[in-house]
Write a structure and sequence with these properties.
This protein is mainly beta and 207 residues long. Helices cover 5% and strands 42% of the residues. It is built from 2 helices and 14 strands; from the N terminus they run E-E-E-E-E-E-E-E-E-E-E-E-H-E-E-H. Strands 1, 3, 8, 9, 10, 12, 13 and 14 form an 8-stranded antiparallel sheet that branches. The protein has a 6-stranded antiparallel sheet with strand order 2-11-4-5-6-7, with no helix packed on it. Strand 13 and strand 14 form a beta hairpin.
């Protein structure tokens, strides 16, 4: 049942299916440093039954000194693992139903809120640290390790903490559709996935 992203207003986000081998990597960019307040959004569907020996990674911005930000699905599919630098905190959620779920991590610069689908699941005493990165990786921790098995869609990175209301209102919208009402924080969009072409597009490159 992969690709089962709920459709709304004919919006069908581009989905990347990962087989545990495939991964995407993109060059580091100063705009991808999300320290000081940010929002990370994506849709995700883990597709494993037997727990691996690691927590499969959805996305990571990392280098030799570790991850500035890394989000994984716990190996038992019972939560999200969120890492920045030496800090690793779990946000509990049951991902075992085999469905696509919407995830948003809102970092206020002093704490972070984690939303899954339309609810708040955790408030975390952590914030994204600024660390040197080798790149942005989707589907692994660093291009090789902790590969993801399942589907990922509509990765969106923002340079500000969005409001919960805004996150929920636009979770099923094409934020770049000029015929729709414009996203109120569109100018703070850092980048978004374009999985039909296995790409991640930086907003700064199109301005």
């Amino acid at each position: 049942s992969l690709l089962a992203v709920p459709a709304s207003d004919q919006y069908q986000p581009e989905v990347m299916e990962l087989d545990g081998v495939t991964t995407l990597g993109f060059p580091a960019d100063e705009s991808l440093d999300l320290s000081g307040g940010a929002t990370i959004e994506f849709w995700v569907q883990p597709d494993w039954e037997t727990a691996p020996t690691f927590d499969p990674v959805v996305l990571s911005y990392a280098g030799e000194k570790g991850a500035s930000y890394l989000v994984s699905i716990l190996r038992d599919r019972d939560g999200l693992g969120i890492m920045s630098g030496d800090t690793f905190i779990v946000a509990p959620f049951d991902f075992t139903d085999g469905k696509m779920h919407f995830v948003a991590i809102i970092d206020y610069g002093d704490r972070s809120e984690v939303m899954v689908d339309n609810g708040l699941v955790a408030v975390l005493d952590m914030t994204i640290k600024s660390l040197p990165a080798d790149g942005l990786f989707i589907g692994t921790a660093d291009g090789t390790n902790d590969p993801f098995l399942g589907a990922i869609a509509a990765v969106r990175l923002w340079g500000v903490p969005l409001s919960q209301d805004t996150v929920l209102k636009y979770s099923m919208s094409d934020i770049l559709d000029e015929e729709r009402a414009e996203h109120p924080d569109l100018r703070f969009l850092v980048g978004h996935s374009a999985f039909a072409s296995n790409d991640f597009l930086l907003a700064s490159a199109s301005q």
